[in-house]
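Fold description:
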Amino acid sequence: MEFRQLEAFAAVMSTGSITAAAQLLARSQPAVTRLVQELEAEIGYALFSRNGPRVTPSEQGFLLYEDVERALGGLRQIHQRAAEIARGDAQPLLLAATSALSVGLLPQALKRVETQTGAAPIQLRTASPEQVVHAVLTGAVQLGASSLPLEHRGLDVHWIAQLPCVAVLAQDDPLAAHATVPLAALAQRRIITMSNPFRLRHRLDAVLARAGRPPEQRAALIETNSSVNAQALVRAGLGVAVLEPLTAHGAPLEGVVVRPIDVDIPFFFGVITPQSRPLTAAVQAVIDALLVVASVLPGFVQHDAANHAALLQAIYGDEAGVQKVSRKVSR
């Protein structure tokens, strides 16, 4: 496969037509068509179904696009870095974080670092927890911030933090009058929740079931992969949400209120770097600043990174285990 073939494929995927891709790449339409056809001949299947200048990606095309875009991004990054080295520019700070940490912690932490050390080039990638771990393991970024689990061979876990989840309610919701919202009251309502069943959703489902959530309410829930989406759905009056606190505090939406819950539903997150790469002063400064910013949030508890396995056992066990581990290893 050649770079030009992959570039032509990605451009057609992004623009939806050969004509627009040709304009984007400053090539002729026949040249773009030929490059895509050469790629299809090499891999052995069609990437698009064609209807004149317009094309529709095949299922295989969709599957291949994510990897191609990631590879092209890596090549562009190499090209950009080579130019920076030639100019003598400082290396950019490469970061990856989940949406919650990108919104709720990193802006304040990066501002704190910049105030202390001055402005520097930064590249921040928002991704799923699994993608954040992968980016750090492969060396694509220098630092990752994500929810647990984080312990993989080849990673250094610098610290783990715990914060209590919060209720997000519409401003005119009767429950907004409570200083602390009873979980039992939330259990009777339509819940807007995260779609990944293996992370925070796992603990939320367990505590809501123990709070007596009726079957009809379980069937009526709304799932999303973004806490920002959840807040917008709450504001529209579609339900109430139980969320990690970072997005709710870091990017509050007008028209919603955030309240503590009378049952502790812990949200765990931490910071990781590649084990094989020495920490630069800039990366260490971000690690430290993230911890400072997180520590001022209500209910913050810090755990030693060595207790990652014990925390995971508690997370995927019962809530009593979480409380026991929290008392034992927090500091």
